[in-house]
Amino acid sequence: MAGVNTNRTTAGIYLPPQVASEIWADAQEQSVVMQRAQRTALPGEGKTIQIVTGDGEAKFVGETERKPNVEPTFGTKTMRAYKIALTESFSDEFRRDKAALFNVLRPRMAGAIAKAYDDAVLHGIGAPVGDFDTLADVPAVSINTAGSVYAGLLGALSSVSAGGGDVDGWVLAPQGEIKVLGEVDGNDRPLFTVNPQSDGSIGALLGRPVYKSRRAYRASASGVAETLGFAGEWSSAYWGSVEGIKYEEYGGPIFNADGSLKHAGRQDNMFSVICEIEVGFIVRDEDRFARLTGAPAGA
Fold first, then answer.
1. Is residue 263 classed as helix, strand or coil in its secondary structure?
2. What per-residue string of b and e applies to 162-171 under the rule 16 or more CB within 10 Å gives b?
3. How does the average pLDDT of the chain come out, rounded?
4. pTM value?
């Protein structure tokens, strides 16, 4: 059988019974997209949102002149539910003898789903095609070089404004925050913090709140500069899920991506946990967002 199943002999599992109750694991973030965008109810068959794309234009008229007759214009955006899922398999003995570790692993599956969702929305990684928007191709503004950060932030405000929006929040990766913290004025004083000894983080930029997430970062790739963060009108972005995150314990066989059998479930003394969500994402207009970029491709 292909693949390795989690059991008491898995590398890194400490076997003796005198094990501390504490378990160290890397912290996981909730979805930054779900925290910033507006949530809307999403039925299983999807949802269409009506958009007013243009208003009638009023004009001054004389005492006996005819009043202009104008028509508003409309559009629609459809949000469709797509499934994100993963399974993890364990031996019965692992669950029995490593109960504390198993209880830590199970909820961390939700963190993996949040990462997959943010990667799809922010960077287009693994994103479904059709009625699922991403910010992968929104206008880019560079804040790469020293002295360019302030101009870049103003450029992001200008870009979003030109798209009909107004930046109501920044999402910065740690690498982006470091760029901003390092920006100085003509006297080499920090531009965005009052006291670098006491102000170790940035709560707002140009009057807009800053939210931090490692998910906002993406390294430079062929033809694409690294992403350090996003500026946007998050109030015009919507996400929805059909039922929220669901867990299910499953005793049947599990197959690898190539179709080969990983294990035969209860016959192999194994069980699996399935974690999944049906979720969607749309924005009114991608031009109401801007991508803050750093090092260019190949740098």
1. strand
2. ebebebbbbb
3. 85
4. 0.83
